[in-house]
What we know:
The chain is mostly helical.
Amino acid sequence: MLNKTEDALRALGLMTLGSRLKRLGERLQAEVQPILGELSPPVPAGQHPLLAALSRHGAVTVGELAALLGVAQPGVTRALGQLAALGLVTVATTVEDGRRRLVSLTPQGEAFVAAARAGVWRRVEEAVADLCAGFGEELLAHLASIEDGLAARPLATRAGESGRDDIT
């Protein structure tokens, strides 16, 4: 009989770490969305890091923005299209190379980020700090260690080629 109270991802331990982190990220974004919904225009939670990065770094290319966030360029391009439609960013080709697109906040985008930073971003950070009370800094250090470890030596390398011997 199926144990409906078992969390299959938890039960599988480290093997499903990626799935658990994805599930947790999706839940955090879903729970933060109503708070972010206080801002106008409404911007999905997943797009706020793009706005924060642009505010922090100024005008950057699409590729540079993807690298700053550590995400794939196609996803950044889609998000930028939505943010441009809201009037929060501009995307223009660079003078030196017409294939490169430079992204920057519009004056409306700058005002949006200022309002977000002063209000909802601060409240979200405080709520997450409360959730992680007593271990937040350690958690961030562990996440950085995992990210750095994957960059230095991917899982496929760590798993080695010996696992293929088991497949016939």
